[in-house]
Amino acid sequence: MSTNDAVVEIAQTASKFTSSIVLQADNKYIDVKSILGLFSTLVTTQKYELHVHGSDAEEAKAALAEVFAKHGLNVTIVSE
């Protein structure tokens, strides 16, 4: 699995949902639906926080947690 695969799969999964999905890495906030933003940010050694807001937030959180885990990325889903 490459980072490229992870980025594409994360962005494609996020795009299925209407919720706002933002990845926090240190002080950076990246729209998960932006492939370019993910490419410049995603490295496997880092810890991330995922912030999801919207009508389908629960489904989005579950789907994205699965994709992040599949690619070995350390993410915490933040419950607002």
UniProtKB/TrEMBL annotation:
<feature type="domain" description="HPr">
    <location>
        <begin position="9"/>
        <end position="69"/>
    </location>
</feature>
<dbReference type="InterPro" id="IPR000032">
    <property type="entry name" value="HPr-like"/>
</dbReference>
<dbReference type="Pfam" id="PF00381">
    <property type="entry name" value="PTS-HPr"/>
</dbReference>
<dbReference type="InterPro" id="IPR035895">
    <property type="entry name" value="HPr-like_sf"/>
</dbReference>
<protein>
    <submittedName>
        <fullName>Phosphocarrier protein</fullName>
    </submittedName>
</protein>
